[in-house]
Every structure is written in C-alpha cells, then in structure tokens.
Backbone:
C-alpha cells in the first residue's frame, strides 16, 4: 500500500464546507432558547456610576438582565493571563482583575457591563437600548509611546507596566558592541491588527436542571482549555458538570484561543435563568472585542563588522497588552518574541528587553505567528538596513551569518535540531529569478514605475511544546497533546484528538497519518475533535503545534494498537509474537505465510470466542477490545525556517504598491499533505502581506476604534496578490517521529518583512512605517524626488 | 432590524400614495438594508419600486442615452447600447463594489443616495445628465447633487430615468479606497463639441464639476494642459485613508489618466 503521507489527498472537510453543510455555533438552536445581547462600554475609560435596568426589564420578552454585581455576588472568577512573566528585577508581573462583566470600571470600548436575555433577537436588541448606564468618563490612555507616563489605568499597577522583562546578557552585548565597526539602529512600529476570523464569535449554552450539567457550544480553538479555565478560574461549574463543544469554527488565527467574557457569563447565566442561551457577535463586536494582534514599538540595534558579520543585537520593545492580560497576552511579546528576534543568524551576543503595558484598548493577544512575526520583522528589517549601510547584497549579508551546523544553539533560548538555511535561500534565489531583477527594474522604470526586491529569512519556534520547559518559563499548564484511537468491531477507526481544527484540515491530515500507521483505508478513519465529552484532553491548536504534537500522539496511540494487535494475531496465527510482522494493515507470519488483517484482529478482540469450543484469540491476561490512547509531550519545540523573496512595483504618481512576484521557500520538515500545506502558506502570506500593505487598527486619542468596520479596516483581497510561487526544502525534525515542523504561521511571519524590504528597496532605502499605504509611499516618493533635485 | 411593512408596488401612483415621512423607497437595497441593520435608518413602510416596469431599461435615441432608475449596475455594465454609446459608463458600472452589489444595486438608488464617494454621480455631472422624476421634473445634474447625501429630490419624489448626453469621447478613472473600494477620488472626463467636463467624486463632501480642469481641457484636450492647473486642497475630505492634500494631488493624477485613456 502506498504511503499517504506526502500525497495531495483532497480534503475530507471540503464536501461539508463547500456545500454549506458546516455546522457552526450559530447554526445551533435549542428548544426554548433565549437570546443574549451584551451592553458594552462606549467609553475607553470610565467609572460605572449606576446601571439602571428598570425600564429594560419591563420591555417585551425580557427574561432577565444581569450585571457585574450579580457576577460578583456569585463569586464568578474573571479572565486570566495563562503565563506568569517575571521582570528583570525578579518581581512578578502585574495583572488587573478582569471580571466577566465590569463591576466598577470599564477599560476599553466594548468592555461588557451587563447582559440582557429575551425571548427573541428583536426583543433583546430593543431592550438593550433601554438599559441606562451612567458613566463618569475618565481620560483614556491610548498612546503606546506615552503609556508609562500617563495616568494609572488599574489601581496598583504603576506606570501601567505589567512587566519589564529581559532575556539575554546586557554585559556581553555591551562588549560585543564595543568591538563593532558599526552600529545599525532602527526604530519601528509593528502595527496593530484585528484578526478578523470569517466566523464571528458565538456561544450557545444548554443547562440541564436535572443533571446540573452545562453544555457550552462555542467558537474556540481549544475547548478543553476553555473548560479548564471556566471551571478552575471562573468557578462556573466543576469540570465534570461542564461540557465545552467547539463544532465547526470558521477561523481563529489566535483570537479564539481565549475564553471570553461572553462564554463565562452565558454559561453562568444559563444555570441562573434555567433556560438555554444563544449569543452571536455582530461584526462590530468582533472588531471591538476579539483580541487584537501585534502593536509594538521597537528600538533595535545591530553591531556589525565592516564585512557584514553580526556581533551583537539589542531589542528594546514596548508591547501593548491592551486593557487586560489575556491567555497568551503576556507570553506573546516575551518568550514567543524575544528569542526569535536574533533571527536565523549566528549572533554572538543579544538581548531582548520588553516592557508590556496596559492601555485603554482591546486586549492584545496571540495573532497568527504570535511574537515571531514581530521578531522576524525587527531582525529582517535591521539586517536589510545593515546591508544598505555596508553596501552589501541582502542575500550576501544573510549567507554570511547563517549557522551551517546543526543542531545549532541559538543565542537566546533555542536548541535548533535541524535546518539548512543556505540551501533554502539558494533555492529561493533561483526560483525568484533574483538575478533577473535588474532587467525587470529597468523595464518598470521605462514605464515610470519603481521596482524593489525584498528578502527575508526566518526561523520560528513552534509546536509549542515541552511541558517542563514551558511551565518553567511561566506557563500555567503543560503543553502536551493526547489522542485515543478506537477500532470499531467491524474494522473502521475513530481517532479522538485533543487538537482542534478551525481551518487546518485535521480531518484529512490526521486521517492520513493514522491510515499509514494502521494500514486502513483513509475512508474508514474518522477524526473526532472539539468536544470535551469525546476524547481525552487537549491544549488546543495554535503555534503550529497540531501535527507536531497532536499528530504524534495519534501515531503513538496507533503504535500501541499495533502492539496489542500483534499479540492477538500471534495467538490467532499460532505463532510467537516475534514471528509476526505488521505491514500494510496485515499481521503476517513469514515462515507459514499465514496472515490476519488488522480488521480481523479488531473483530476478534471484541468477539473473543467461537461456537462449541472454549477458545479465545486473546492471549492470557489480555483485555478484550482494541482501543488505545497516548499522551505526547515532545522533547523540544520544532523549528520551521525559510527564505522568501518578493518584488513590488510602485506607481510614484499615486504611491500604490503592486505586489508583483512572491516566492516562498519553506522547510517544514516532512510534508504530510502538500495541498493543505499550500493552503496554509497562501493564507499566511495573505495575512502577512495584509500587515505590510493594508491592515492597521487605529484608535483615536479618546480610545474610539476608528477602524471598526470593513469600510475602514482594509482586509487584503484576492486581487491584491500575485500567483504565489511556492517551494520547499526539507530537513526533518529530529525530535518527533513524523519529522514534521509546522506550517501554519510561516507565511505570516515571513511576508511582512519581505514586502517591506521590497518597498524600501524600491524607495532607495528610505525608511517607511507599516503599513506601506499609498499615501505614505507617495509622500516618500515625493521626498526622494525633492532630495534628488536638491542633490543635482 | 426594527419591524416594518413591506410593499411591492406596481406603479408610481401606488408608490406615491404609500409614501409618508416614515417611509422609504427600496430599489437594490444595497444602501438601505445595511443602514437599517445598523439601526441608522428605521422606517414604518418600505416601498419596493423594483416592480414598476417603466422604471427599468436602457434606450438610445439620437444623442441621448436613457437609463431607467431601477436598472441594475450589472445591466449597465453588460449593455450593448451603453458599451457602444458611452463605453466609459459601462466600465464605471463594472467597477462598482462587487458582483453581489452590482447584481442588486441600481443607478437610481446610487444617484438618490448621493454618497460622496459613489461613482455614478460623477457620470451624471460629466455627461450633462438630466434626471427625470415622478413630479414631472427634469433636473440638471448640476442642480441635482446638493451636498453630503443630499439631492434636489423632494420627499416622495421618485427618479424615473436618467438621460445622458452621448459625448465624443469620455473616460472614468477611479482610485479606490483599499478598504471599501468606493472612490478615494474618481475623475470623469467627457469631451463634447461644446467643451469638456471634468467631474470629481470622492474628493469632497459632494461630487462637483472642476471648473478649472474643465476649462483647461476645453481649451486644450491633453494631459499636459492639466499640469498647469492648480488644485487646492481646501474643502477636500481628509480621513485615515487619504489626507486632503493627497486627494487634491490625486484629482490631478487621475484626471490625467482619464484624458490619456480617452
Ligand atoms: C459592499 C458595497 C460596496 C459598494 N461599492 C460601491 C462603489 O464602489 N461605488 C458606488 O458608487 N457604490 C457602491 N456601493 C453602493 C451601491 O452602488 C448601491 O447600490 C447604491 O448606493 C444604492 O443603490 P440601491 O439600488 O441599492 O438603492 P437602495 O439601497 O435601495 O436605496 C438607496 C436610497 O435611494 C433611494 N432610492 C432608490 N431608488 C430611488 C428612486 N428611483 N427614486 C428616488 N429614490 C430612490 C432609497 O429610498 C434610499 O434612500 C456599494 C454598496 C455596497 C453594499
């Protein structure tokens, strides 16, 4: 049987998704359900003086209205940060309380203060208009650069500072800088983004008054984790009385990692009002309250020799946490960011210092790539600046500083098990026709256009991973994954995984690896995920970890199945266990050429006997059935890497940037399904390019989000992109049996600096901030023209 | 969305009878329905005029191209008559929104709404259009577009058709807002024996005829004539996508593009 790993198996999920048969949370309707609308703060910072619900309570169809007071009375816990980060001075990070419904103060526009339940959606919207909240409006803190000098938002959190974190050795860096021929300096802003999952957040809650069980259907990337948090921290119900189901989920990109206010409030309230509850966010609520991404200000310095060798690197960053610290909010700008900021290079000395601060804006958390795009942007922009200042080709300077031996101990944290950065960049150079750029530039210039080329090389740490390591670093939970593989008596297989698929196509990829492992046709394998009542446990899908961690748990469970199957087959074939070989779904005894299929063995394991004779296929002491589970905790992160090259053409008259060519060469280790990986790369590139050219979440000084709709927040569209030119190199991960590294975030990580490097190259090295919108580029062109004219 | 009464009317008389201070006409609904969903518009009666046969259709007679008010963008974009008589108008319709919007939205709705960044109003100004209404009025474009979302229409007055004067040549160049794809600026240039019109949308709170550009091009129909025209940024809209100064410059750039494409 041919191996399925490596083949373009069409997605099992396509039929459902492409024919509109997906079942999302908003598709779920329960008998007797009520509808919820949240009353949200229209102010970025205010004290709640009074909430008057009397008029609204009398409105037609209203079932109940609950506020922060009720939440406090019932001692329902708030939202939490999942990682505890320590400051350079050894002090613990400072996090404000974040009750599910604000009790005395609100801290961003959209912060929920009350919830209304009514019989119909129309009625609940009507009634919501009648809730009267009296606020004392305070001055909002919105400027990231000035936050530490502004008024204190949360009592007791001085300078609005959550932590002032350091990774690396300042002294060593100083020594390296003292030896340098040149110091390259760069100030950058990493623009705030709104994840914009296609499906807005939603939850539907069922409460069974007899069993006292709560079922929460929700749009989550990690239902098991949500249950754990809701139970352990929210105190909504004990875990055994709480079931969290994340059915089909239409994209998350990190924004659906968090357990949000609405799920806690509705789960708690369903028990209180003894009615099912349905809440579906409107698009504006998504803009305002989904966790946002990025939002850093960075000053970086790179110490170099005149011939382009890197000696040391400094990264001083202020990271915006928004109003509250959420699940991955505190780790994203530290351990997911700091170590990767030295890039794929041999960097003798480095440090990353990050001050994470609170502002009166929506909470900022992981967004596709989480920390690694910000890190890659920083290093790849400064490396290009170094190349410009030293008069080196951008490829040459990178080649000069690559590690060539693996495992490679990266400067700040990571032991990179495998990689080959030189081959990757060579391949990208060739695929992008790098050498033909000069001719294409001339061609563009003859049409009055500017052309630029941009290069990025990156690595990322993903598969987030070894529990002892992440817990040592401050993570509140271990980051293993689990799987259970069940053979049905009639030979089909159900695989339960703790990973969650919300666009990643696990139903296909996981079935491929199980099919290979068990020798069962892929049609006979079903993947079950997303329900805490089905399957063991999982930490969720983010950080490109599903295959590298969750997938391996499946493999290991399959291996256990084969081990047990072998014992049973040996007895059935009257051979010793050692004589039985398992291949392509068959247990074979070589010397007698007798065999049993794994299906037959499964059947026998469930029906262990025969008529008229007392005879079992099960060896002495073996239990009936063929079900195995596995918990897998990897020994290390995995380290995808790659080289991307793109070309842009700029119309200096309008400043419009046209992305003309884009080449991505990535090393994801083993590729299980090239079709799906391509989709992941395309999506990632779209979001990375979006950050470079279009997307920009903006608040005004009073804390109003001025990009709260698609009229103002620019989502990239298909016609903004060229045909992507995609290639791979492959060095297998040595730390997992599949050799996989993860591919979900690579495009997002690499594309932003690649595009910006190209834009800046076209502008003759002139710095420009993210995103490179037409007006900014137009201004830069004019300024260039002005200074050229002066020079002439 | 608040509850309302929906009326599908068969003729103008019925539509007028139902019209009240709490009603609105519904054509493609591409503006009306989103604004109702957002709670910006609430009505007791929605009077759907798409069933009124005489409001739809495209006809050329002599120098005039006449388009019925409920004619959809997609119909204008694909119409042989329009492509032949005023190809730039078909191209403009093809560039509005997305396929869903073009399959629903109507020329009358666009003009009645007079969004400062809409495309059709510039065509009306540039192509010496007159707007025929149910009050038996024939309103010149120059008098029709009054200001931000404001037109010469009286309450209960329905646009029946728009008559465009077929030019010698014409072209529309749009610089789309990257988010909404409405015009940041859109410049419609049309050349007649009597002179040239340059209509600009997106740049200010209301579409306008840029008299300086029109004059320069009337004297010398070439893009170099535009170089000499000064465009002031005063009165230009300014937002997160484009400052007034940038818009002023883009008016010139897109006017040139339009002339070159004529
Ligand atoms: C996603 C999206 C993108 C868009 N992009 C663009 C774009 O790029 N460029 C652009 O120009 N437009 C754009 N539009 C607007 C679109 O062209 C609308 O179709 C148009 O503005 C309104 O036309 P309608 O037929 O849908 O009118 P409706 O929404 O039905 O009505 C709009 C208003 O006009 C009134 N009205 C309608 N018909 C008449 C009539 N015959 N007489 C009197 N009053 C009337 C209505 O009462 C209402 O007040 C976009 C719309 C959307 C939703």
Residues:
């Amino acid at each position: 049987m041919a191996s399925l790993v490596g083949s373009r198996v069409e997605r099992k999920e396509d039929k459902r998704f492409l024919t509109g048969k997906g079942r999302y949370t908003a598709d779920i309707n329960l008998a007797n359900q009520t509808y919820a609308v949240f009353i949200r703060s229209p102010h970025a910072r205010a004290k709640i003086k009074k909430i008057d619900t009397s008029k609204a309570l009398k409105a037609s169809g209203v079932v109940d209205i609950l506020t922060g007071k009720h939440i406090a009375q019932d001692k329902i816990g708030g939202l939490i940060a999942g990682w505890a980060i320590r400051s350079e001075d050894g002090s613990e990070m400072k996090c404000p309380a974040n009750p599910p419904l604000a009790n005395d103060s609100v801290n961003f526009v959209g912060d929920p203060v009350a919830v209304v339940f009514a019989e119909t959606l129309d009625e609940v919207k009507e009634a919501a208009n009648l809730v009267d909240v009296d606020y004392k409006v305070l001055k909002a803190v919105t400027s990231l650069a000035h936050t530490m000098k502004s008024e204190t938002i949360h009592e007791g959190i001085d300078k609005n500072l959550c932590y002032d974190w350091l990774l690396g050795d300042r002294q060593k860096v100083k020594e390296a800088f003292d030896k340098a021929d040149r110091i390259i300096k760069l100030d950058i802003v990493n623009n705030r983004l709104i994840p914009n999952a296609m499906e807005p957040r939603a939850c539907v809650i069922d409460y069974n008054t007899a069993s006292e069980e709560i079922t929460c259907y929700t749009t989550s990337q990690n239902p098991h984790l949500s249950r754990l948090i809701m139970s352990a921290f929210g105190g909504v119900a004990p875990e055994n009385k709480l079931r969290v189901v994340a059915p089909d989920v239409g994209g998350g990109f990190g924004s659906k990692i968090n357990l949000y206010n609405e799920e806690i409030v509705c789960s708690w309230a369903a028990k209180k009002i003894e009615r099912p509850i349905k809440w579906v966010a409107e698009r504006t609520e998504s803009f305002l309250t989904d966790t946002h991404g990025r939002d850093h200000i960075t000053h970086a310095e790179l110490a170099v020799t005149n011939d382009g060798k890197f000696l040391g690197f400094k990264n001083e960053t202020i990271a915006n946490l928004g109003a509250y610290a959420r699940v991955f909010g505190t780790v994203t700008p530290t351990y997911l960011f700091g170590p990767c900021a030295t890039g794929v290079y041999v960097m003798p000395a480095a440090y990353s210092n990050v001050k994470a601060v609170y502002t009166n804006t929506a909470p900022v958390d992981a967004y596709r790539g989480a920390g690694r795009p910000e890190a890659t942007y920083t290093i790849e922009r400064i490396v290009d600046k170094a190349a410009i200042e030293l008069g080196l080709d951008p490829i040459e300077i990178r080649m000069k500083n690559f590690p060539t031996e693996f495992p490679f101990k990266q400067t700040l944290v990571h032991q990179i098990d495998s990689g080959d950065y030189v081959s990757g960049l060579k391949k990208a150079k060739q695929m992008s026709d790098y050498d033909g750029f000069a001719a294409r530039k001339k061609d563009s210039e003859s049409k009055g256009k500017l052309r630029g080329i941009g290069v990025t090389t990156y690595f990322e740490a993903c598969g987030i991973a070894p529990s002892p390591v992440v817990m040592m670093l401050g993570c509140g939970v271990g980051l293993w994954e689990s799987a259970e593989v069940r053979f049905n008596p009639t030979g089909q297989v159900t695989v339960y995984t703790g990973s969650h698929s919300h666009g990643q196509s696990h139903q296909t990829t996981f079935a491929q690896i199980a099919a290979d492992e068990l020798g069962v046709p892929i049609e006979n394998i079903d993947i079950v995920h997303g329900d805490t009542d089905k399957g063991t446990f999982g930490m969720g899908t983010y950080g490109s970890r599903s295959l590298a961690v969750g997938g391996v748990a499946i493999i290991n469970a399959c291996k256990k199945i084969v081990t047990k199957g072998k014992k049973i087959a040996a007895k059935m074939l009257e051979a010793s266990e050692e004589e039985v070989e398992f291949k392509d779904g068959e247990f074979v005894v070589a010397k007698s050429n007798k065999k049993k299929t794994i299906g037959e063995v499964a059947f026998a394991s469930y029906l262990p006997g025969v008529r008229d004779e007392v005879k079992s296929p099960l060896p002495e002491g073996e239990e009936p059935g063929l079900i195995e589970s596995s918990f897998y905790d990897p020994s290390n992160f995995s380290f995808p890497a790659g080289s991307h090259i793109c070309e842009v053409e700029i119309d200096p008259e309008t400043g419009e940037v046209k992305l003309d060519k884009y080449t991505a060469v990535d090393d994801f280790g083993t590729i299980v399904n090239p079709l799906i990986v391509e989709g992941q790369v395309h999506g990632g590139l779209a979001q990375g390019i979006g950050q470079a050219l279009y997307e920009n979440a903006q608040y005004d000084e009073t804390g109003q989000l001025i990009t709260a709709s698609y009229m103002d927040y620019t989502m990239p569209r298909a016609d903004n992109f060229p045909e992507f030119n995609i290639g791979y190199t492959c060095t297998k991960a040595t730390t997992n049996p599949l050799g996989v590294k993860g591919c979900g975030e690579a495009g997002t990580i690499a594309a932003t600096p690649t595009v910006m490097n190209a834009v800046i190259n076209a502008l003759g090295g002139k710095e420009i901030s993210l995103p490179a919108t037409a007006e900014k580029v137009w201004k830069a062109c004019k300024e260039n023209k002005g200074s050229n004219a002066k020079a002439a | 969305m608040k509850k309302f009464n929906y009326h599908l009317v068969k003729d103008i008389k019925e539509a007028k009878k139902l019209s009240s201070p709490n009603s609105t006409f519904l054509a493609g609904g591409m503006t009306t329905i989103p604004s109702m969903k957002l709670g910006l518009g609430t009505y007791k009666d929605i009077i759907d005029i798409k069933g009124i046969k005489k409001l739809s259709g495209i006809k050329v007679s002599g120098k005039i191209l006449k388009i019925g008010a409920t004619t959809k963008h997609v119909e204008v974009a694909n119409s042989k008559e329009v492509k032949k008589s005023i190809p730039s108008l078909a191209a403009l319709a093809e560039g509005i929104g997305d396929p869903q919007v073009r399959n629903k939205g109507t020329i009358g709705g666009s003009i009645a709404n007079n969004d400062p960044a809409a495309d059709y109003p510039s065509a009306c100004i540039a192509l010496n259009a007159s707007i025929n209404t149910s009050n038996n009025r024939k309103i010149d474009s120059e008098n029709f577009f009054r200001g931000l979302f404001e037109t010469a229409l009286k309450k209960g007055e329905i646009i029946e058709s728009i008559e465009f004067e077929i030019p010698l040549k014409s072209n529309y160049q749009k610089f789309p807002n990257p988010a909404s794809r409405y015009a940041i600026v859109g410049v419609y240039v049309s050349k007649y024996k009597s002179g040239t019109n340059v209509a600009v949308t997106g740049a200010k709170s209301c579409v306008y005829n840029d008299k300086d550009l029109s004059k320069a091009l009337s004297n010398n129909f070439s893009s170099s004539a535009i170089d000499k025209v000064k465009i002031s940024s005063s009165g230009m809209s300014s937002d997160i996508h484009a400052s007034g100064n940038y818009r002023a410059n883009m008016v010139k750039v897109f006017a040139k593009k339009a002339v070159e494409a004529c």
